[in-house]
Design goal:
The protein is α/β, with parallel strands linked by helices. It is built from 17 helices and 16 strands. It is 35% helix and 15% strand. The relative contact order is 0.11.
């Protein structure tokens, strides 16, 4: 088969943009080109803008797999990525045909058998209607986030709590008011594209930020404003626009997409709740490389006297780190001397410094508390040996965090909130607490600390981690 994958950012981008979806996409492509005869193509869009020409076009790009994978970039898309760039112009996302015409010509030229969208950010919605003109192509959409139901992808209202629904677009408008303006993103991307073209992407990150700062400053913007997603005076779309957004997205999925692949049962439930046809959406758990070496049992406590908690992820509120620190600061005294903490989260803004200082201050009350400025996957084996209990304290319906799978693959049980897909990894309910409930978290933690045998129970009820090969076999059922 000739397969085209789409994600808004190329899978081998070096600065970790795209998060877990990028890691997943790279793993799938690497397996296919090394183990099958399928021809693999990849397209990205929404972050490439020309300083001079406004012509929309698709150009071939280089990638770390060379000619074994054919990669392309769509230049000057009418819809930018990530989704935050389209809040002020929902109508273009819903109705634009300029990008579709370029995309359709690309599809006709290469004659794909399967087009698999890992999201639609960076493209107008009409691109998901490609089956209308090419009825023999299998079209799939993987639900890694909630873009089709929530214009900020995470169903997390006003950076505060899980969204209860768009309420005819009113909630969306209130939640997204004051977002970063479209012009800020475009200015940033124009220079980024230029720096890559002249091969300055190899200079240090600080040098790139300096060049971008000089460029954006002349245009009344700044790298800091864009990078930290600060509030700017964007002209937010109307409530009616957001209402149409949800209606049209679901309508297109139901009419033009052959299969919607949810990465967890909880993600599937949310798709059904928002109107996706029950016969169209299927749970297909993602595959990971670490599953191939999964130990399938608890690796044992690192110390008989205390338990080491591990948080690995981001500082964003919805990931729950702030909640976790609140709970750890409230631990009763008899529990403090039985708990240690390790945090691996990459610092991005000055606002993160406050949480970092709180992490370090916990060293005064817990057995110890350490902060590490992020991590890379090559470090995982050593890191996991030092952690007894992974914590996924998410405050949103996180589809299925890759790090949760990685914890279990290395023999580390996971204490997770009841939102999202992480709770599905084991049938042991003693490792699930009510999201945002500090008392429930402390109670569950105390029980785990007191009863060491619970870790074995967690792995007895563990869902076997899915390998990349197993995932592809499951996914390919919907390719034919």
């Amino acid at each position: 088969m000739k397969i085209l994958y789409y994600n808004w950012i190329q899978f081998d981008k070096k600065n970790n943009s795209g998060g877990g979806v990028n890691v997943y996409q790279k793993n799938v492509i690497e397996y296919l080109i090394n183990n099958t005869e399928h021809e693999v193509y990849f397209l990205s869009s929404g972050i490439y803008y020309d300083l001079i020409s406004k012509r929309i076009r698709i150009v071939e790009s280089t990638n770390e797999f060379g000619k074994r994978c054919h990669t392309f970039k769509l230049i000057n898309s009418t819809c930018m990525a990530p989704v935050k760039a389209i809040y002020e112009d929902i109508d273009t996302y819903l109705s634009d045909m300029k990008v579709y015409q370029v995309f359709a010509s690309f599809v006709k030229k290469y004659g794909f058998d399967v087009i698999h969208f890992n999201n639609i950010e960076g493209l107008p919605l009409n691109c998901l209607k490609i089956k209308r003109d090419f009825p023999d192509i299998k079209v799939l959409y993987s639900q890694h986030n909630y873009y089709m139901f929530c214009p900020q992808v995470n169903l997390f209202y006003n950076n505060s709590h899980t969204c209860e629904g768009c309420k005819n677009g009113i909630n969306c408008r209130e939640c997204l008011a004051g977002s970063v303006s479209k012009s800020q993103f475009k200015n940033y991307y124009k220079l980024d594209t230029f720096l890559e073209r002249v091969h300055l992407e190899t200079v240090s990150q600080k040098a790139k930020l300096f060049f971008k700062h000089l460029y954006l400053k002349k245009r009344g913007s700044s790298v800091q404003e864009v990078a930290s997603e600060s509030k700017a005076s964007a002209s937010i779309a109307s409530a009616e626009d957001f209402k149409r957004y949800l209606k049209h997205n679901v309508g297109v999925l139901n009419k033009y997409v052959d299969s919607v692949l949810a990465v967890s049962d909880r993600a599937r439930e949310i798709a059904l709740k928002n109107g996706v046809d029950k016969d169209k959406v299927h749970t297909v758990y993602v595959g990971t490389k670490v599953a191939e070496q999964a130990v399938k049992k608890y690796h044992g406590r690192t110390n008989d006297d205390y338990i080491v908690l591990g948080f690995m992820g981001y500082f964003e509120k919805l990931k729950g780190l702030e909640f976790l620190l609140n709970a750890l600061e409230r631990l009763p005294e008899e529990l403090q001397n039985k708990v240690a903490f390790k945090c691996y989260a990459g610092r991005k803004t000055k606002e993160d410094d406050l949480l970092i200082s709180r992490i370090k201050k916990l060293d005064e009350s817990l057995v110890f508390s350490e902060y590490h400025d992020g991590y890379n996957h090559s470090e995982l084996p050593d890191i996991m040996k030092q952690i007894d209990l992974g914590v996924i304290p998410v405050l949103w319906e996180d589809n299925l965090p890759q790090v949760a799978i990685e914890f279990t693959a290395y023999g580390v049980p996971v204490l997770s909130s009841d939102l999202g897909g992480a709770r599905e990894l084991s049938k042991c309910d003693g490792f699930v607490f009510e999201a945002g409930n500090e008392e429930d978290f402390i109670d569950k933690l105390k029980n785990i600390v007191t009863h060491s045998e619970m870790a074995d129970e967690y792995f007895e009820g563990l869902m076997k981690p899915v390998t990349v090969e197993e995932h592809i076999n499951n996914m390919f059922k919907y390719y034919v």
